[in-house]
Design brief:
Blueprint lengths: L2 E4 L20 E5 L2 H5 L5 H20 L3 E5 L10 H10 L5 E5 L4 H8 L1 H5 L3 E4 L8 H8 L7 H12 L40 H13 L18 H19 L19 H6 L4 H13 L5 H25 L2 H4 L12 H4 L5 H13 L4 H14 L4 H11 L5 H12 L16 H7 L20 H12 L1 H4 L6 H8 L3 H17 L1
Helix pairs in contact: 2-8, 7-12, 9-12, 11-12, 12-18, 15-16, 16-18, 16-20, 17-18, 20-23
The protein binds flavin-adenine dinucleotide (FAD) and iron/sulfur cluster.
Length: about 500
């Protein structure tokens, strides 16, 4: 008897577990549904990217002889949710089971657990083996550990994959991590590599028109003339080649830098493709290793890049599934402020913030340091409620899925998990942004000033953050120096900082 095989928007690869043993009579179900597209107000480019990539992938499957039942967003009979589309497909065919690969979000995974009973049909939920570390393997690694630091997990993944390992089992270059070499700022006159921008095909053009019409209330720019995401496997491979040839050699050096008007620097822009399945983590890492072994890119760049993928990416996924659903509810710093309006509009005199929001709205993208040290850092310093900042991050990026977004925001950026993920909060004043960017030069604020009209909001909020959270944070070993510096500030100045920080929080 045939199977109904559900393929989700982030499972767009013919090598996904649920497509490996397709037989005659099986039907692949793909659906653009209201519930998934609207449960947060996803950036218009994210919806356009995923719907177009889904349509192109469905066409590829059909061309290869697979029967696809594809439900478009504007089909009159669209039932609005995956669950109801599965029900409709079952009613319209004769299937003896449903086959699906593990999804990337706890909410949907919970719903799927009830499908077998609801539909009176067995549901095979297959492991998503695109990831290098299975969920069981991660749980076994985490078992009994006092702290779950990424660095140790990463070494395990290096050993497991053999990436950048020497023949005697040691790390290439004698070190596991070359991050100390990866904190440079670009020299004056440096021109960033040209980032890949795909040619917009007819399918994507149609979807862009649909999204513009149907989701006008969603944030972000959308225009077929400037849309840069590839929506086919071929285009994703071209994006990979472009990164390897043009940007990888400088990826390490300028990984933590920010430059006004430069949205991508030497970053890869591959996360959207990796997360939806158009590229796989291992093929991307192998391409980078090959570049190193062939002398086309230095070790600090290649190791740094591979660590982001087999280290951070795998680690956050493992952590998400290990800790959900309680993880999302923690609020270690008792943060409860609303999200400032400028996260949506970019209307602020803070140049670093305006730049990060502009990049976000124009490209459904911001690079890691903008996400962590500007957008996330400000939210933590200002005491924004974790739920509000999580929803914002889930909404605005083309690569955002809860399994990867939540730990990065909740654990890494705003320390709402109290240190499960990071050994201390990534809290920084304007001095950090001034060191790592050119933004402060054109900003009306002064990163060195804590109070007064010219005081940098990051700097004011940073010192206030330390004061407000003293009881929670002082005992953390790596916070000692910050608290010693705080104690050097006079009581009178601390009072001024507090009242200026209160004013900043209530103004936004
Ligand atoms: P590059 O800088 O070129 O890095 C290469 C690849 O490494 C990325 O494509 C990505 O797949 C992986 N990677 C790097 N850092 C991380 C990380 N911390 N966690 C997981 N993978 C990583 N990444 C997402 O894919 N989706 C998200 O929703 C997301 N939200 C984030 C929110 C915050 C607050 C922070 C601090 C980070 C977030 N990240 C997220 C991680 C990272 O910022 C993005 O993966 C990266 O900026 C994507 O751009 P890129 O492809 O040019 O990455
Ligand atoms: Fe950002 Fe402060 Fe620098 Fe302005 S001075 S760009 S607000 S860090």
């Amino acid at each position: 008897m045939p199977a109904l095989r559900l393929i989700l928007a982030d499972q767009l690869t013919r090598d996904i577990a649920s497509l490996r043993d397709v037989e005659d009579g099986d039907v692949v179900l793909m659906a653009e549904v209201r519930e998934e597209a609207r449960y947060v107000r996803h950036h218009k480019q994210k919806i356009a990217f995923l719907f177009a990539a889904m349509r192109n992938f469905a066409a590829e499957l059909e061309a290869a002889g697979t029967t696809v039942r594809y439900v478009r967003y504007d089909d009159e009979t669209n039932a609005g949710s995956l669950r109801e589309e599965v029900r409709r497909a079952l009613n319209g065919g004769d299937f003896d089971r449903i086959v699906v690969t593990q999804c990337g979000e706890w909410r949907l995974a919970e719903d799927m657990k009830s499908w077998a009973r609801a539909f009176n049909t067995p549901v095979d939920i297959l492991e998503d083996d695109r990831f290098i570390c299975s969920l069981d393997e991660f749980a076994a690694w985490a078992e009994g550990r006092k702290s779950l630091r990424m660095e140790y997990f990463y070494r395990e993944m290096r050993r497991k994959t053999g990436l950048l390992m020497t023949s005697d089992g040691g790390p290439e270059g004698g070190e596991w991590n070359f991050d100390a070499e990866n904190r440079k700022t670009p020299p004056k006159g440096w021109t960033p590599p040209t980032a890949y921008a795909a040619r917009v095909d007819q399918t994507t053009r149609e979807v862009i028109a649909l999204v513009g019409e149907v989701f006008p209330d969603h944030p972000g720019d959308l225009d077929a003339e400037t849309f840069r995401y590839g929506t086919t496997r071929d285009q994703a491979l071209r994006a990979l080649d472009a990164f390897m040839e043009r940007a990888l050699p400088e990826f390490g050096d300028f990984q933590d830098a920010m430059v006004t008007g430069e949205d991508f620097l030497a970053h890869s822009l591959l996360s959207a493709y990796l997360n939806c399945g158009l590229l796989t983590p291992m093929e991307v890492c192998k391409a980078a290793e090959e570049a190193y072994r062939g002398g086309a890119a230095p070790l600090n760049a290649v190791e740094g890049f591979i660590r982001q993928i087999i280290g951070w990416r795998e680690y956050v996924r493992g952590l998400y599934w290990l800790k959900m659903p309680e993880y999302r509810e923690t609020n270690f710093l008792d943060a409860d402020a609303p999200l400032p309006e400028f996260y949506w509009t970019g209307e602020t005199e803070m140049v670093c913030m305006a730049e990060a929001v502009r990049n976000t709205m124009e490209n459904a993208y911001a690079h890691h340091i903008q996400r962590l040290m500007v957008l996330g850092n400000y939210a933590m310093l200002a005491g924004v409620a974790p739920r509000e900042i999580q929803d914002w991050f889930l909404t605005v990026y083309a690569d955002a899925y809860e399994w990867v977004e939540l730990p990065n925001v909740h654990g890494m950026a705003v320390f709402a998990d109290g240190g499960v993920m990071a050994s201390k909060p990534y809290a920084a004043s304007g001095a950090y942004i001034s060191r790592m960017s050119d933004h402060c030069k054109s900003c009306r604020y002064d990163p060195k000033q804590k109070v007064g009209d010219e005081a940098c909001p990051f700097t004011t909020l940073f010192w206030d953050f330390l004061s407000r959270n003293r009881q929670r944070l002082e005992a953390i070993p790596r916070m000692g120096m910050m608290y010693r510096n705080l104690d050097r500030i006079s009581d009178a100045d601390r009072r001024k900082i507090k009242s200026q920080a209160d004013a900043l929080r209530s103004a936004s």
